[in-house]
Amino acid sequence: MNISFKNNHSKNAIFQTLSNNEYRLFYIENGKNIRLKNDEAKEKKSLLENSGFHIQEVDSNYLIIERGLDLQTHLRFPGQDHKETLEGGLSSAFHGGYDSLVAMPNTSPFLDNPALLKSTVEKQASAGQNIIRVGQTAAATIDMKGEVVTDIALLKEAGAIAITDDGWGVARDDIQDEVFKRCAENNLLFMQHAEMPGHGGFATASDFQKKFEIPEYPNHVESDMVKRDVELLRKHPKARYHVLHVTTKKSVEAIREAKKEGLNITAEVSPHHLMFCNENIPDYNGNNKDIVNNFKMNPPLYGPEDRQALREALKDGTLDCLSTDHAPHDFDSKDKFWSEAAFGTRGLCTALSTLTTLCADGVLAYEMVEYYFSKRPREILSADGFKEARGYIILNKSTKWTVQKDDLPGKSKNSIFLGTELKGRIEGILTTDGYWQDSL
Questions:
Q1: Which helix (H) or strand (E) holds 173?
Q2: pLDDT digits (tens, 9 = 90+) for 127-177
Q3: Known catalytic residue: 325?
Q4: Within 10 Å of residue 440's Cβ, how many Cβ atoms?
Q5: For burial by CB atoms within 10 Å, which of 1, 48, 152, 303 has the most?
Q6: Domains with residue ranges and CATH for the chain
């Protein structure tokens, strides 16, 4: 991996002095994250120093949390190296503070057969160099067409840790019913891209959409599928149902009601949907198609009311966690008029800073960042090898930075956050291999 952070390759611990004269100590022992408080922290610090540990000392301006797990990453591997390389995706994850990724199966070819899946899992593990763990999902249906359910038992044996047709929703009721049944039998999470097909839309109703006469992406297509899935889920009490990248108030309300009913449903929100809405889409000026089209993703940006509903739902627990839907693209795929341009934005390098920006703005609480970013995603996935984080992130809450292309490792640069000022930036990462410090 191409990592710009510099590693001291020594034994390290982080000692934090808080403003209320409390103390915290963070280190790794036998591959396990350890954190201690106050007198216990001070005593252990002395013991670690005497045994050769290098102590990184920080104050209350820093947020120290476990490294994250992203439940929705498009690594573009195998077969899509023109968009992004595997190494570029893993480097983006490291710089963004992640130690674990869940990769989507809409690759080339689709990951719908055990042999290809097994080979992919093995190559990802080698590329991750024990720094980034990749959990690979498998397709729910053959060729991701929503017509024939895959052999989920064999895919699990080959290494699948969850099932999804991400990029498309499973439209047919009978097929979705069978997917729930097989996922429950194999204790695998099913992750739904909730979108009823056939609407033909590319942008939600807004001044931008009307000005450029773009076919409208309706507000109901996501919530319609969520409501349908909830009806089917009642028949499968052992199924685990996760709604990817929730975007609308209607979907939030449906998920909230399903949780009150006690159904086994979880849901996530993406950084760009928390930060932006359709009123933020810039106009075309003749030579900025790629920048404008970074605001095009699926599901799309809706209005301020929907964005506010997402923020409130994350705070009250209706939405469980943050997931990036990191979707790298080559320049040519974005350098087109809106309707022809590819869906998707990068997200791995800016996700954590999005959360801390919203904390600085009073929208979210710093105390919940680790839960959204690391703890809750691991609980939802509930997969061996991913249940515990490996290492810590050291983020300076007072640092403000404007996202530039040079901040984005890898081949792709299609980030909706380009030019956006964020509050809070990673300065160091503690891993089993040492303390990695930002060289900037």
A1: helix 173-185
A2: 988 899 999 999 999 999 999 999 999 999 999 999 999 999 999 999 999
A3: yes
A4: 10
A5: 152
A6: 66-390 (3.20.20.140)
